[in-house]
Amino acid sequence: MAWNEPGNNGKDRDPWGNNGKNQGPPDLDDLLRNLNRRLGGLFGGNRSGGSGMGKAGLSIALAVGVVVWVVSGFYTIKEAERGVVLRFGNYSHSVEPGLRWKPTFIDEVYPVDVESVRSLPASGFMLTQDENLVRVEMDVQYRVVDPQAYLFSVTNADESLSQATDSALRYVVGHSTMDDILTTGREKVRRETWDNLEKIIEPYHLGLQVVDVNFLPARPPEEVKDAFDDAISAQEDEQRFIREAEAYAREVEPKARGQAKRLEEEAEAYKSQIVLRAAGEVSRFNELLPQYQAAPKLTRDRIYLETMEKIYQQANKVLVDLPNGSNSMIYLPLDKLGQTPKAAKSADASNAVQNITPTSQTVVEGGNSAPVPLRGGDRFTGRN
């Protein structure tokens, strides 16, 4: 049976104790009056009759709170940053640089630097493929390209990148020999480490981009450091000698080619000269043949005399004609006789002995030893 049904003998069974009074909604004015009374007249009200002043004070307090809430929502994102906005803890959107506003207690903004290049060092003693221990140091440079992924894909993107770098470096060093790491294979180790690092971090979507990987000089253990220093020095000397040899080859090769080209041109010129001279001789003998057929002895004598004339023009000679029983001393120019025709020509020209002919010709006649110059083409026929 319901508590308010008829037949309850006039008893009020209202469980809320309202004794049958009206159960309507509470009065708002009463609520405000009670609130003001409990605040104890902080805004100018009193217990007896300060409801008007209480309402005004509460309104002012609410207005001040709203102003403070609005002002506290303004924030600035720097030029090199991007803002990630969370609304009630969930990702909402990203904001560009500038002055922005957010509803306080509703949105949270996390600025992320996306332009600065960050550096992450990695180092340690690692075992190579040939079972040698080497200390390797590497510096990874990276920057943020996706702020949302950088903040929320993993717990700590920087720490994840550090662990991935260490894993990639140990893998590459473990598949390389110690000589390659210390000498010739440094660039290969650097490139392979970079490639493996990008493959490792790709599935995690860290929001990072690797800009560069610097492979710092590796060091062997102190016990064998001197031997490896000698090996590195020898490697550097080898490269230096190779560069010097290449420079010498670049210097000598053009000269050799030029000299070969000059010899070829001289050979071609000599060939042309010989061919033309031979053709001229053939032509001359063809012209001489009819004369020889007409007068053989006269032609032979003329050819002989012309030949001897050419020979004597190119040789130093002294002609002496002394009477029988003469005791006169003969002067022979031995210094001139020992010279080549060109040198004799130069000496005779300087001493004014020879004036036209290229060789010195001296005739000693009678008992006198005075040199007599002969012109080119003159022939000695006997005594005067």
UniProtKB/TrEMBL annotation:
Membrane topology, as annotated: Single-pass membrane protein
Cellular location(s): Membrane
Keyword Methyltransferase: no
Pfam families, A to Z: Band_7, HflK_N
Oligomer and partners: HflC and HflK may interact to form a multimeric complex.
Family: Belongs to the band 7/mec-2 family. HflK subfamily.
Protein name: Protein HflK
UniProt source species: Aeromonas simiae
Lineage, top ranks: Bacteria, Pseudomonadati, Pseudomonadota, Gammaproteobacteria, Aeromonadales
Gene designation: hflK
